[in-house]
Fold:
Amino acid sequence: MITLTRRLVGSRSDLAALLVLAAVLLVVMPLTLDIFRLNLVGKYLTYAFVAVGLVLCWGYGGILSLGQGIFFGLGGYCMAMFLKLEASDPVTTAIQSTPGIPDFMDWNQLTELPWFWVPFESFAFTLFAILAVPTLFAFLIGVAMFKRRVTGVYFAIITQSVAAILTILIIGQQGLTGGVNGITDLRTLLGWDIRSDGAKYLLYFLNAALLLACIVAGRYILSGKVGKLLLALKDKEDRVRFSGYDVSNFKIFVFCVAALFSAIGGAMFTLQVGFMSPSFVGIVPSIEMVIFAAVGGRVSLIGAVYGTLLVNYGKTAFSESFPELWLFLMGALFIGVVMAFPDGLAGLIRSERLRRVFGRPPLAAVTRTGALAARDPAPPAASASADAALPHAPTGTDR
Amino acid sequence: MFEGYTASEIGAIFAMQGFAGLSLFCVFLLMALGLAIIFGQMQVINMAHGEFLTIGAYSTYLMSVVAEKHAPWLMDYYFFLAIALGFVVAFAIGWLVEFSLIRFLYKRPLDTLLATWGLSLIMQQGFRSMFGAREVSPTLPEWLLGSWQLSDTIEIPINGLLVVGVTAVLTLAVFFLLFRSRWGLKVRATTQNRVMAEAAGINTARVDRNTFALGCGIAGVAGAVFTTIASTGPTSGSLYIVDTFLVVVFGGAASLFGTIASAFSIAQAQSILEFFINGSMAKVITLAIVIGILMLRPEGLFASRVRK
Amino acid sequence: MRRHIHLRWLALAAALALAGGATAADYPTAEVNTTGLAVTDDAVTVGILHSVTGTMAISESGSVEAEKLAIKQINDMGGVLGRKIEIIQEDGASDWPTFAEKARKLLVNDKVAAVMGCWTSASRKAVLPVFEKENGMLYYPTFYEGLEQSKNVIYTGQEATQQILAGLDWVAKEKGAKTFYLIGSDYIWPRTSNKIARKHIENVLGGKVVGEEYYPLGHTNFGSLINKIKLKKPDVIYSIVVGGSNVSWYKQLKAAGITSDKWTLLTISVTEDELLGIGGENAEGFYAAMKYFQSLDNENNKKFVAAFKEMWGDDSVIGDVTQAAYLGPWLWKLAVEKAGSFDIDKIAVASNGIEFTGAPEGYVRIHDSNHHLWSKTRIGRIKKDGQFDVIYESDLVEPNPFPEGYQ
Amino acid sequence: MTASSNTDFLLAIENLSVSFDGFKAVNDVTAYVDYNELRVVIGPNGAGKTTLLDLICGKTAASDGSIRFKNREITRLPEHRIVREGIGRKFQTPSIYENLSVYENLEVSYPAARGVFGALFFHVDETIDARIREIAESIFLGDCLDLEAGLLSHGQKQWLEIGMLLIQDPELLMLDEPVAGMSVKEREQTAELLKRICRDRAVIVIEHDMEFVERIANRVTVLHQGQVLAEGPMSEIKSNEKVIEVYLGH
Structure:
């Protein structure tokens, strides 16, 4: 029991960090912000689910996915389908040629609900689908890719292409999906008006609580053997394989978890924003979410949340006052985080928590190379030929 | 779909469709060539590749404005100068980017991907600040715009011919540069064994920089040529990225031949599918096929089999 | 030059002041604003909500400029009910939730009396529930697919049937067109529009659709499509290609020998704005069906174009949507004056049947019940310099966002 | 796949070949390794030694031929399955997890909870802890359990990797140049370690250092250009004309 608590919340300083985050999200924000701003923060926090997932699969698993929008979108669409069906009861849609189906279907001459929409009339099924559909999709991608040892840049490009395909499909099949406009005008959840201020408050708290739960779950995964294996994998994948592990299973697992978190975020997004559209499935949002994680520190679950909030706050603030500068700043942020602060915010605030869990900062290697790049730009030959600095280089090769 | 047509009509359509496939292949190859060199040589995926294409496009636009205003007699030929300018400008900016950014990230390919994405945002906003948010249209020489009437029914687009021609010349040039020149020898030596190359007195840092800049310069040429078939605007380059990456990844790293074959197969698949089914679905199916094949051959079509 | 313009404005101001002739004193704030909008004794606040950043910024900048011009002109004439219009501008950033979020900010935090904004259907769909819930008033400028009508939106652009039917009728009559090839970018507006076009061609004109195709947004290679067109030899190529694809599409058409001397192409997606990127020489002689062209020859338009260039520079071009955006503030002003109140509910009712004679496109009138505009549809022939020759003008067409038999 | 007879050997390699783009790195190799044998593979650079190990442990797929372990065909098994059959492989360069501690390196290598969900709920109990400490002692790292592995000396890293294999208690251990880059003292310790190790298991060692080979080997296989040139006790090999010509001579 003690070990379980320890693995869930970590050491005392871990607990402190978690409590601080919980206090910020559950107390400070609601007390200081009006409902409009709070709803905005709520929207940002839905992206933080994706960022937390990316910490798991990218920061620890070394798997950079440029297609997390896929899962965010799938989760969001599942929720949106349920809400749309509820908003399309035969009374409100009486003017349609086929009452009782979503308005966009009616415009597209559909005369009955497509088969895959039908189960979404059930809330229980919807909840299940929000979790299962994206996870299953991630599982399929994962099996196809990792069993074939597709990694690194290849995986990044392929996930990006999958996101592109899905976007084209959703936009093209507008009778089934609402097309480029997405699924809009969502009103009630089981009769409860989600657009009212009271609902927004409640959804905000639900959202924050779920996010904290995901962080705790993420911490449980990382603090145990899986976390160590992921670090080991990132360092020497072959060694793990030749220690008798089926490496691909661990990658699939962590990729699925990241997808699951993203999907929860997507569903909460739909609830709080009131619609879902293909623009969250595509490449650009997917890459932006990577930068949220990177700014927060790609190996810090809690940092990912702060990173997401910070970047989005910056985006809102800057795009209001200096719209032209915003892209410059965003670009500089990408470059700066990669070049100078590979550990992001969490790296700046020396991460004592992780030290406790692992005995030392777990990403010593990353920090070292990152610091090298940042601190020591002088001799290009040295960094360009870092091979020479590796201990094994002089041995030569043997067939 | 061919009922009610004469044999010669069908023949003409097939001929033109063959050419459409060929020019799409050349477009893909032009897009991907620069990226393939960079990816093959240094395992860097340059997400700002599209913006280097845009540099070439804006160079053409600038040249056309200058020619129109100051040297109308040049209007017929300025396009070749524009191609050269596109190369020079993109090469120079590529050189700077390598010097100030890429060289610190060679050991971290995924980070390069993010950093160059940031670079692409900055470049896009740069274009917007310099040339305005709206698309511009370089005035192209009259001879480039029309088509070449081969027979009564067969018309071949001249800009298509230009794309094919430039692609052929550029590919040959790259081939000779990489496989028949001293510099190419250095490049290949560096790729294969950096330490040994350094020991042999090759300045590998300089090789890297020039290779990266060359890749960008080729993108500049491609961008200049694309003004004849596509738009010139701050985000024009980003229209190509997904296709470009897929071509390169599909071809496999470190293989010029792989890139060519990959561009060819993707272009043919897409061109034929587009002819027989709807455009959007053709795109989806093409992408899906490519991804499917990549699952079977994760290292790309033509990665050579070596001891890992 | 500058003095000239001022004189014109003064003249316009005088003319309209006679019609309106209001001062703030005649309309106490407590009476004209019963719902707590941002209206004071001497000012009223409206919102402008367009994308200033992101991919849509290219298209939406013209609308922002037109709306600001209209508001400036209204202020120069003494404002609305004697109150100066103040602007709060928000950036939708080409991102639909941002639109929804900024719309809510404008309505809830800023309490603006009206919002001029949105461009794409997706952004309008995103803000619509906000406007309906918070009871705001949106003036939406873009021609669009129809299938929508709201108490809280005035649609100042044409809905699909207005733009499509008159154009098809014209091409069928003038060119004797019987076969059509429908092409569009793959999203809701082109698909819905082509659906209407197909019904009209098949059921009314007795023609035949020989092909209908959609390509993803941003698609740049049309070689195969062009060959299919050559194979089918349609009398008319009906094009609704948009955005970056547009330029590729016309350049490749021209290069493949599909030019206006041998082929007829009719589009509803090319305005003067698009021609900047396409290059007039690449689409010369093709036809566009719009309600407005910059080259329209009437007094209103001449003044409008001159004022626009005065404010935003001689290089400015004005497309259909830009003109429609210009109508927004004026129609709102007229509605407020008719209602004698800024209250949204009253404006929504008062808007029905409002006539605006000062529109650059000529006379327009808001429909008696559906919040869309009666407007004429014109056919323009693309010229090399990126402008249009207006060669046909229909009668006023009734807006019909839910056209029977076309769905 | 070549049909092959049952054998009493631990490892039976028969007619094994692999080619890379036409180049035959291993060409028709047949060799047998007995239970508890310590076999040394020698050969000049490029002879195919490392590739042979790669083939056995599944890192490289064979073009032709068969590998059987305890009479079970393992030629097409994935790597982790081969490991679970009881074959451990140490790489030429020390392959350890630099950013985990020595203890964690051994913990992660402990052959339990190898599935995802097993690993998710895994924790180190007393037996495992004792085992980790025992192995650490045997590889001379009993005092450095909490040290970050990246900080170990080159020789210590080699030992750690051997330890990570030992904790899995494999029946066949394959070591690729285990003493490369070691000091004289470390070599002696390693030789002693190897002798201890092969009491309970078979070991295949690739080594260049002839002196070291003589100290440990039962039998020696000489590879040359992907083929077996000679095989036998070290004393025989030393006097083999062909071997002297291609390898020992220079």
Remarks:
- The longest helix of chain B spans residues 7-42.
- The longest strand of chain B covers residues 147-149.
- DSSP finds twelve helices and two strands in chain B.
- The mean pLDDT of chain B is 85.
